[in-house]
Amino acid sequence: MKPHLLLSALLAGAFASLPVWATDLAAAQDWSLSADGGYVLDHRAGLAWPRCVEGMQWTGKTCTGKPQLLDRAEATALAAERWKAEGVGWRIPRAAELQRLVDKSLSPPGLNPILFPAAPGQWHWSSTSNVSAPSVNQYTYGNIAQGRAGDNARQAAMINGWAVNLSTGEARGDAARASKLPVRLVRPMPVQ
């Protein structure tokens, strides 16, 4: 076999075993698995994603158990506890980071089941905050009614948070912080 045909055949065979999202060279270079297989590494963002959501355990082949459902305060406390216990910067991911995990080339879209087996495809907490509350001059007589509306917007921002649907990639800022949702924490990518 000619060398260039042999190389083409080898490359075709190598890419045939990769998930759909990794068939283009750029995507293949952005993502990989950790040496122990417990993390999906996002090289572009410098993040390490556990293959299982909180409450589930990686067996070496799949995720088992049930997702832990937490409200926003519990999710934040869990990330802080893990950071303190492990000395690693665990945190709740931002909405855009969670959206990046959704593989839109799948039908239907969702998390790649090879990378994130048995993952719940529902709304997950993000750390993104509502920052769009209008500012109102409370001392201007004509703004008294607006000031109350502004207060309502600020109160809504305090009781609502952002969540991402990992089946579709949709992000919303009106998730009640008391809602019990799965959490997929993220950490900085470890040195390999």
List keywords for this structure.
single chain, 192 residues, Mannose-Binding Protein A, Chain A, 4-stranded antiparallel sheet, 3-stranded antiparallel sheet, 30% helix, globular
| Rg | 21 Å
Q: Strand arrangement, largest sheet?
A: 1-2-3-11
Mean pLDDT score: 80
Mass-distribution shape: globular
- The count of domains is 1
CATH class: Alpha Beta
Structural class: alpha+beta
CATH architecture: Roll
SSE blueprint:
Layout: H1 3-16, H2 25-30, E1 31-33, E2 39-42, E3 47-50, E4 56-58, E5 63-65, H3 72-86, H4 95-101, E6 102-103, E7 110-111, E8 123-125, H5 144-159, E9 160-165, E10 171-176, E11 187-188
Brief write-up:
By secondary structure, this protein is α+β, with helices and mostly antiparallel strands. It is built from five helices and eleven strands; from the N terminus they run ααβββββααβββαβββ.
Task: Explain this structure.
It is built from five helices and eleven strands. By secondary structure, it is of the alpha+beta class. The chain has a single domain (29-188), classed as Mannose-Binding Protein A, Chain A. It has a four-stranded antiparallel beta sheet with strand order 1-2-3-11. A three-stranded antiparallel beta sheet has the order 8-9-10. A two-stranded antiparallel ribbon has the order 4-5. The longest helix has 16 residues, at 144-159. It is globular, with a radius of gyration of 21 Å.
